[in-house]
Amino acid sequence: WKNYVEARKIYRAKLGRRSLQLSNIYLRIGKYYQKKNKLKLAMENFEKSRDIRLKLFGVNHPSVGEASMEIGMLYLKQQQKQNCRFYLFSCKSIYEEKFGSQSIKTALAYFNWGYYLSRSQSFKQAASYLQTSYSIIKEQLGENDLQLSKIQRELGYLYSNLDNQQAVSYTHLRAHETPEHLVCRLLLEKDTETS
User: What is the reported pTM?
Assistant: First the structure.
């Protein structure tokens, strides 16, 4: 932590207030504060990071998308869904344009957007993004990647709230509760009607 603060001072002095290195330090400091649950300080640092990147690269740069994702997820953590929507949609759009729809970065943006939609009660739309994210990550990183368990857990929440589980192409979800955490196992069975 102290190293980040010291680095921030050095970058300000040597490179000015608009360097990518300084923006990266603000982002790391924001993540530190977020872990410590100091959300106001986290947001201040995320916003400083994004502002620098906007001035350096313009609105459609991937680094702006990265900072937007942090801001959006922090807003969502605070239940500020309207504020969250702009930033997560911005990140998703930037990543789709710059990395394509099948990249890992875009898959993570799809997960975040799906998570937002699920928490906003848009369950069918959320399912589509979460399943797409799951498929990309499984194909590129393998079935043991830890991110898949996060997606499965969110799908468990989503399916428990859907009236019609057949509305999505992955039709079977089994979940059980353990003392430590909720374990969800998604059985990837394509809906015969869509094949």
Answer: 0.76
